[in-house]
Amino acid sequence: MGERFEIRLAGSGGQGLILAGLILAEAAVLYDGKNACQTQSYGPEARGGASKAEVVIDTDEIDYPKVIAADALLTMSQEACDKYYHDLKRDGLFIVDSVHVRRVPTSRAHRVPITQIAEDTTGRRITANIVGLGILAGLSGIVSREALERAVAARAPRGTQEINLQALAAGFEAAEKLQAER
Amino acid sequence: MTVTLMQGNAACVEGALRAGCRFFGGYPITPSSEIAELLSRRLPVVGGRFIQMEDEIASLAAVIGASVGGLKAMTATSGPGFSLMQENLGYAAAAEIPCVIVDVQRGGPSTGLPTAPSQGDVMQARWGTHGDHPIIALCPTSVAETYTLTIEAFNLSEDYRTPVILLMDEVIGHMREAFDPDRYGDIEVVDRMTTDVPPEWYFPYDETRAVPPLVSFGEGFRYHITGLLHDQAGFPTYRQDEIEPWWQRVFAKINDNLDRIFMYDEDGIEDARTIVIAYGSTARSAVHAVQLARRRRYKVGLITLKTIWPFHEALIEELAAGAHRVIVPEMNLGQLALEIERVLGRAKVRRVNRVDGELIAPRQILEAIEVA
Q1: Which CATH architecture is the domain A5-181 placed in?
Q2: Considering only CB atoms, which chain B residues are within 8 Å of A30?
Q3: Which ipTM was obtained for this model?
């Protein structure tokens, strides 16, 4: 247990949060040379229903593969926010998509209109997961920007690399703004 | 560097292909579906066959047929499908047909909790099919171990002419971890034993051999295969002088090789006051809990079982002899615990159970260690 860092990405099925978790884990393992373990849970629905990805990143070997107390939490639905807020560490990073989450339990949360940023940047709300990844990585520094860019480019469906990299850049930009404000 | 981030189910596929699996007959079911999906693409490329059957009964029937035809064959399913496979699992055990059945466990009974983890099929793996029969069941704890134990499952099935169950769970099946196949360059692959005897002298159930070689159908060797108890040539028999040697042989081939078949890891059990015995994904929780407990100065050891069936009674008895307490965490209401209690006595064993579709948390095991 060297520098175990636990991330939970939660929202609704179809928002691409499990793919976001996979990309984050690939950035850590393939390009930053760390260990990562990614798990997921989702309902039987193709879209809708609760969906969650968890990523544990460590410089050492990872034993328990799930989140014990999250160091970072990204929630993109009200249900996910209500359900997982209590598992966040007291000083943990808390990001909510204010487009989908109206009631936020703490002023400490970073409220960001993630889905709106995605739509404004790429014209496609479906890239909100990548915007969210950019914000999370920008604020936490848990993976390098270069690693994440390479992981996004490698995983984006053919022909969508450009817009996904734009979405990622928009996320990092939003993170910089938040840091400047604080 | 060829490190990839690989899912447990994908590692099972890589292991199967490495072991020489060339046939898959199955019916997709979550959380095992990725195994069927990936093999449907990979098997044709290496000259293998993939068939999606009408159900799980037919799936295992096709696998048995393919194996008798000479191919290393497998299927993959979850609890509901594993229930349907029990009849043919018994047939494979009785007829001594090598094959690998992967059960990626989800919450049960019945259709239960799709895509949520469980270890509820432990006793089904042992006793799901009727009648006394030998069986082997292996439980991986990681993506890398899913790869190695899949290969081992094929090896054991060929070595002992028996169905082998790879008993995964949803956490292991869906989890992604770093995996480097180059680390396993010299891993052993066991191929099927053939025979030198002429066809007319060949007995598929030769009672003088612990594990008689299985010659493929279609090679000119005439013999019979049946689920009925059979003589050396495979024909049904009621003769006690033929039945008795068969029973002795099929159990001896497993029981005489327990030291090879029963795989486990041990950590710090020599002077441990408390020992945790875990398997599958729950072992990952146990590793974390044991580390936390040691920092709090508890003398605690860990035994991680890779093989759960056959159960090596004498070894577990020996390993746990010095401990005052043995803790058995499982995502069921106490299944392997029954076996451990039988061997070590109920007074010594404490169960830690969880059946709500979530992996056991390290804290649950730590609490049990603290009150042990």
Answers
A1: 3-Layer(aba) Sandwich (3.40)
A2: 3-5
A3: 0.94
